[in-house]
Fold:
Amino acid sequence: MELKKSLKLEVLGFVLLNVFVLSMSRKTIPSINWVLKETNYTRLCSSKNILTVNGLFPGPTLYVRKGDRLIVNVQNQGKYNVTIHWHGVKQPRNPWSDGPVYVTQCPIRPGANFSYELIFSTEEGTLWWHAHSDWSRATVHGPIVVYPSNGTTYPFPKPHAEFPIVLASWFKGDVMEIIQSALEGGGEPNKSDALTINGQPGDLYNCSKPGTFNVMVNYGKRYLLRVINSIMNEEVFFAVAKHKFTVVGMDGAYIKPIETDYILITPGQTMDILLTANKSPSHYYMAARASAGVVYDNTTTTAIVKYIGNYTAPSTPTFPSTLPNYTDIDAVTDFTKRIKALASKDYPIDVPKKVDTRLFITIAVGLIPCPNNSCDGPNGSRLAASLNNVSFEKPAVDLLQAYYRKIGGIFTTDFPNVPPYFFNFTADEMPDNVLIPSTGTKVKVLEFNSSVEIVFQGTNVQAAAENHPIHLHGFSFYHVGSGFGNFDNKTDPKGYNLVDPPEINTVGVPKNGWATIRFRADNPGVWFMHCHLERHSDWGMDMVFIVKNGSTRLTSMRRPPSHLNPC
Structure:
């Protein structure tokens, strides 16, 4: 009896110990609460209500460590449908929390809520979050700071302090009314009235001097600037007067340090920049203005770097003479060609050398004829953007649910690997048959873990060529090559960088040029790809990848959360 009793106690103890260990290993996922609401802001001599998170513009910064998880509970007290995207967060196996409206979820309607589970994996550095529904991202956005995991540190000297630098757009009008009116009429939306740094236009604009953002620095100290381009429709040059930068990271990954006196950053991209305060104590402008392309808002936003200490401040801060002019195409190329992955022992990369699936995707802004030439676009037509001559149409049910629940009639799987026509894509004159795209909700299905190469080819359709920042959800990819003119399949691949290409999530396709990316389709789910110039995405410069499940549970999509918003 005593032996049986003793054995029972040992078994019970073993079970209790394992229950305790299991409970300890299941870490509680931290959560935060966000409220979307209208908040009154004054800029450029006038006031208006804007949609914000917790009343802030820019919105709150998320601070995490590499590999963390976080739940963000979003309650919509605004007046428009909204979703939130976590730009650059790969969300392994978890497209349910990725965010693009009618792609991976139905909208959070006014009065409703949704809980996003953020799963961080290999990302490290600066990312960002933003609304992914209509034009609400103009004011609904903010930084994500991913610190190194515990016990590790940066692969560069530790900064004394850090500052998020969020570049954005300001419209005097209601941004939702602006885009809705433009889409109804078929023409161009109004351009922004100002660019901003951390929510402020800067003192080169009317009524803006008192609110100009200040960066306070101590002489001799090193600072980390986490620069985010959340601007709606412009890529920009960015510089600080008389100071050089060391660029050390991009899109949540480290790069080989680049010494430079300016950067070029497209909408959607982030950059980590070291700035050493080693100039004569004074006031220096930090400035950003649009780069070449079809210039949309070519105004200049400023902040002021102010040294702490006793000195006579200048009447006007020094302006950065190194900030390139918006027409300086060479400045764009000179900077971007220097970006290479760190590719070290501690931060290795894995560029696919063998390619299973190749796509050649043309990028264009075309026209769809309107009855009696009644629309506001060129020649009375409606503007329509496309990838491979397909202008994307958002479905009535989000694609992720349609795919997961096998709902028919929502999308087709025939997104083309190549465009329907091959011609001189960058010529001054185009054949008439390339102006009018087809429309549809077409996706491309990829086998799990297949290696993919995409060549993006810019076009001069409508003589409207510009740089296109193409963003892929669910992945980082390797930017292995780019150039001007038409891509040559025989000669251009010989110049690919397969040794240390940057690992990014948003690539700038050069004006009248091409860019090639490679990635491994190892993240099962439904993933959006689109131009991050907001008007182009709204006109249909989008497509969707469906990555099939692997053969195991851990290589398959997670089950949906218990609550999904209805369409």
User: Anything to note?
Assistant: The first strand starts at residue 31 and ends at 43.
